[in-house]
Design goal:
Radius of gyration: 23 Å
Distance between the termini: 48 Å
Oligomer: single chain
Enzyme class: oxidoreductase
Structural class: mainly alpha
Protein name: catalase
Pfam family, one: Catalase-rel
GO molecular function: catalase activity; heme binding; metal ion binding
Number of helices: 3
EC number: 1.11.1.6
Largest sheet: none
Order of helices and strands: HHH
Number of strands: 0
């Protein structure tokens, strides 16, 4: 079994996989219905960015703030409204 065609098909299964540090695929039955529908949580536009923000350390949060400030400093015209609120 060759999982990809990049880098001469690496990573690949190595016999015996667990002993040589590779991975080993196993057959398992998968049941379910294929539907084209979004879950209700997809509509939670504000909770996901907030969860991301709260998961960052204070140093990471400051880095994000600095990056936004840098990028918004390059905007020639005021194209956004009164600003954004994360919390």
């Amino acid at each position: 079994m060759k999982p990809n065609s990049i880098n001469d098909n690496w990573p690949r299964e190595t016999p015996p996989a667990p002993k040589r540090g590779g991975f080993e695929s196993y057959q398992e039955r998968v049941d379910g219905n294929k539907i084209r529908e979004r879950s209700p949580s997809f509509g939670e536009y504000y909770s996901h960015p907030r969860l991301f923000w709260l998961s960052q350390t204070p140093i990471e949060q400051q880095h994000i703030i600095d990056a936004f400030s840098f990028e918004l400093g390059k905007v020639a015209a005021r194209i956004f409204g009164s600003g954004w609120s994360i919390s």
